Amino acid sequence: MSITVVSTIADLKAMAAALLAEKAHSRNPGTLGLVPTMGALHQGHAELARTAVAENAVVVASVFVNPLQFGDATDLARYPRTSEADAALLEAAGVDIMFAPSVEEMYPDGEPGIRVTAGKLGELYEGASRPGHFDGALTVVSKLLHLGRPDTGLSAADRAGRPAYRAYFGQKDAQQLALVRRMVADLNFPVDIVAVPTVRDTDGLAMSSRNRFLSARERESALVLSRALRLLEQRAAAHAPLDIASVEALVRSAPGVDLDYLEVVDPQTLAVRAENCQDTPFTGQALALIAAKVGPVRLIDNVPLG
Ligand code: PAF
């Protein structure tokens, strides 16, 4: 089936309701998957979309470059807009509806006076260099989660006990994922959050809409991020000391790479793990987070440990 592109909330609601009714006897009846994106889509997004398509009767992908989460007008203006290619990628993945609203449709009264605040966790890591970023991201995610919420008309029994509503986020943006989970839990949003593993190019670089801004030489240097994470992964798997200092030195030795942080954190709370990260054998579970500027591009990546 070909994808339907809608730009208004009214059309989104009407189309989602019509498709849920039409697919009432399909696989996973009465279930809707939402894939929030800002467009400039790549294979990482395609994986989110395919996962949602496999688990739901109807899948909506939103494509909205959210001004609230950009601190700087240049960064917002420079963010790639590739809507035709986005629609083609989503259609190939089997998505039913692409919701591509204007800024006025999403924020009809201008910038919202009331916003979601990300709290302490929103000020760490990415939040430290992008103040207000996570407040803006959570505010738009909360709106999108409300707008995508299906009115399925089917009981849980008719849905064979399946959750009616799921939203899909990439593990690559680990801090965003943790904050969305926290928001959904703290504010009782009726949606299941599904994390989809990071997709990497064959050379190991995590896929990102920002990779297109790397020169060939910068891209080569950027590979040190995934190499560093792989090293930590191997040490953790061998229950060896992580010796983060030596990994930081490796990253700093790559030309043009300006390391911002490399932290080993609790996978749920993202609090820094004080123990077992340097000289003692690694045990338990953790997440290694890395962020660096490579040339003009800020890159992030992460890997589960243990
Ligand atoms: O991860 C993104 O692309 C954005 O932060 C999101 C979740 C679509 C909100 O604008």
Helix/sheet category: alpha/beta
- Overall radius of gyration: 20 Å
What is the mean predicted local confidence, pLDDT? Answer: 95
Compute the number of strand runs: 9
CATH class of the largest domain: Alpha Beta
Q: Return the domain count.
A: 2
Segments where pLDDT lies below 50 for 5+ residues? none
The DSSP helix count reads 10
What is the CATH T-level topology of the largest domain? Rossmann fold
Looking at the structure, what is the overall shape?
A: globular
Record the SSE blueprint.
Elements: E1 4-6, H1 9-22, E2 32-37, H2 43-55, E3 58-63, H3 73-78, H4 83-93, E4 97-99, H5 103-106, H6 126-129, H7 133-148, E5 165-170, H8 174-186, E6 192-196, H9 216-237, H10 244-252, E7 257-265, E8 286-294, E9 297-305
The structure holds pantoate.
Your description of this structure?
The protein is of the alpha/beta class and 306 residues long. It has 2 domains: 4-196, Rossmann fold; 209-305, Pantoate--beta-alanine Ligase, Chain: A,domain 2, CATH 3.30.1300.10. The chain is 37% helix and 18% strand. The chain has helices at residues 9-22, 43-55, 73-78, 83-93, 103-106, 126-129, 133-148, 174-186, 216-237, 244-252, and strands at 4-6, 32-37, 58-63, 97-99, 165-170, 192-196, 257-265, 286-294, 297-305. Strand 2 (32-37), helix 2 and strand 3 (58-63) form a beta-alpha-beta unit. The mean pLDDT is 95. Residues 36-38, 66, 69, 137, 140-141, 173, 176 line the site of pantoate. Pantoate (PAF) binds next to strand 2 and helix 7.
